[in-house]
Amino acid sequence: MGDKLLLLAQVDDVSGEVLQDVAERLHAAGAYNLQVLASLGKKGRPGHVLLVDIDAAREEEVAVILGLELGVWGYRVLESRHRHFEITRSRRVVAVDAGADAFEAEIGCKHIRHGERLLGLKVEHADLVALRDRLQAQGRLVSLAHLRAAVEVALRGAAPESTPCVGLPSD
Question: How many CA atoms are closer than 13 Å to the CA of 161, on its beta-carbon side?
Fold first, then answer.
């Protein structure tokens, strides 16, 4: 793993549409993470602060995007060390208890670990959307937030070789 940098750029007079476009370009240029924070600049002008995580080898490419698209006059390279937890991905089959229309679905999930300890589990958004849409087609309306919670609780408590049952909130 190469050297990592955290860049800080201060931006003013940029629309949300431009920021979204730049965010997509920065991710395509290799940004691992991008945070856009609202700020108040000199003379009370609204602005934004961008925090961009990149490999040091990508700095030049990212700098050109920041200057060209956002008109920044420069940026800061923050000295920092990032401690990354171990992330593993898996696909799990879950049984969805939808009453008479029960079914199984495959869900992608990320397991966040520190050593042997499981710190967190997050299911893939696209799989949740597909599951929500399938439920909606059956006449069951469940919010993504409630569905995420139900799936993650079921997966967190299940043995790796089992098919956990996802209980849905009652209508």
Answer: 0
